């Protein structure tokens, strides 16, 4: 039995890997703490962080899909902790439009997140930054020690590669334990003073409570006949909302539509999508100032009586028993992420998908295929076609 589902059922619906990889996360987080402690990555980063704090180095987090959203989640947190801007730019943007994001005279640390490290954009982003920027450093955080990205960065004297526990190199289609462990590793590496072992132990304990006590409630919500699921959050929780919306789309092959927005941004148009078939999750901030905005929108949506269900996560009362309210604003990332993963998982099973590979016909793949990378040089001016003037 995993996540309240018998192993036999999981095997029959080809969902065993995804179930295991969601359930194992608190244990793997403790393993990641030890890997980070024993790595050379911190020594590699220390002088670079000093340069960044002095305004002499850009820090860019990159990746594709979920790996990009990892940066969206942790970059705002680390900007706050380090006192300097940490940017998140998807590798798909760096590769397709490097001239809009990269500058030859701006020294740059590129932090690449990748589950396998074998997608075309993983290597393409590294090569593109090397071609454009004069002074470049690389840090690869990956779940695959045998991947092309790990190998490439291990062989570069101005780079460092960190491989996380092999068990986090997810076999399932959707990134679950791979994503949460890369998020955690980045936080530990860049701000070890703020995020210590005791902090990780607490968030792992609360997430274990969630898995043990609240899975049935999430399963109940997933069995409701709803088609539009909205995830909302302020600050770094907006990036998390984007990731949980993607997880739902992936595991239900788009049958359930996942939407994301910031808490305050939702009123500016996106709120129009709310209908009786809508479930809304709000990732409440632990910051008392920001939480006011989360709570205001929650009460407004309840008063509107248009959505089927609105869930304010992180409150002291409500749908879930796990004591998320005890966690600080950054630690809440992890149980909130697991809630999104569980909702997507149970939805996939309920709708009859083969969760470990919800698109068996191959239009979407575990490792992206079909990408052609074109050479780019900073010395060549690239222009488009007709600009509309005759």
Report on the structure:
- The chain has 390 residues and is an alpha/beta fold.
- Helix content is 44%, strand content 13%.
- It is globular, with a radius of gyration of 21 Å.
- Strand 4 (136-142), helix 8 (148-154) and strand 5 (159-163) form a beta-alpha-beta unit.
- The strands form 2 sheets. The protein has a 5-stranded parallel sheet with strand order 2-1-3-4-5, with helices on both faces.
Sum up the structure in keywords.
14 helices; alpha/beta; five-stranded parallel β-sheet; 390 residues; 13% strand; disordered C terminus
Can you describe this structure in just a few lines?
With 390 residues, this protein is an alpha/beta fold. Helix content is 44%, strand content 13%.
As a whole number of angstroms, the C-alpha radius of gyration is 21 Å
Overall mean pLDDT score? 93
Strand order of the largest sheet: 2-1-3-4-5
Strand content range: 5-15%
* Structure class: alpha/beta
Q: Please give the alpha-carbon distance between the first and last residues.
A: 68 Å
Summed up, the helix count is 14
Shape, per Cα inertia axes: globular
* Total number of strands: 9
User: Low-confidence parts lasting 5 or more residues at pLDDT below 50?
Assistant: 385-390
Helix content: 40-55%
SSE pattern: HHHHEHEHEHEHEHHHEHEEHEH
Strand count, sense and barrel status of the largest sheet are:
5 strands, parallel
């Amino acid at each position: 039995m995993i996540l309240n589902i018998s192993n036999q059922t999981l095997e029959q619906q080809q969902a065993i890997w995804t179930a295991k990889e969601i359930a194992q996360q608190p244990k793997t987080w403790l393993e990641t703490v030890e890997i980070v402690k024993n790595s050379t990555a911190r020594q590699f980063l220390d002088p670079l962080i000093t340069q960044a704090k002095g305004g002499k180095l850009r820090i860019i987090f990159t990746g594709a899909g979920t790996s990009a959203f990892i940066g969206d989640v942790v970059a705002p947190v680390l900007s706050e902790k380090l006192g300097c801007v940490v940017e998140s730019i998807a590798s798909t943007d760096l590769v397709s439009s490097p001239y809009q994001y990269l500058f030859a005279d701006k020294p740059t640390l590129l932090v690449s997140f990748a589950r396998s490290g074998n997608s075309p954009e993983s290597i393409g982003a590294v090569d593109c930054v090397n071609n454009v920027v004069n002074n470049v450093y690389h840090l690869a955080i990956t779940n695959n020690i045998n991947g092309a990205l790990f190998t490439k960065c291990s062989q570069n004297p101005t780079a460092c590669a960190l491989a996380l526990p092999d068990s986090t190199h997810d076999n399932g289609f959707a990134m679950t334990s791979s994503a949460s462990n890369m998020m955690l590793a980045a936080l530990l590496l860049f701000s070890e003073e703020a995020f210590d072992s005791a902090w990780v132990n607490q968030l792992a304990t609360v997430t274990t409570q969630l898995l043990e006590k609240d899975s049935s409630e999430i399963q109940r919500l997933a069995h409701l006949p709803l088609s539009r699921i909205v995830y909302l959050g302020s600050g770094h929780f907006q990036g998390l909302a984007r990731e949980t919306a993607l997880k739902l789309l992936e595991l239900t092959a788009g049958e359930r539509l996942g939407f994301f927005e910031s808490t305050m941004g939702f009123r500016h148009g996106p709120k129009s999508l709310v209908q009786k078939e809508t479930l809304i999750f709000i990732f409440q901030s632990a910051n008392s100032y920001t939480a006011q905005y989360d709570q205001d929108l929650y009460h407004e949506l309840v008063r509107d009586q248009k959505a089927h269900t609105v869930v304010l996560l992180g409150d002291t009362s409500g749908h879930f028993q796990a004591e998320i309210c005890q966690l600080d604003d950054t630690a809440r990332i992890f149980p909130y992420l697991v809630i999104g993963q569980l909702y997507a998982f149970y939805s996939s099973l309920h709708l009859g998908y083969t969760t470990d590979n919800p698109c068996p016909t191959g239009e979407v793949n575990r490792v992206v295929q079909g990408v052609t990378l074109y050479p780019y040089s900073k010395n060549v001016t690239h222009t488009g076609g007709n600009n509309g003037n005759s």
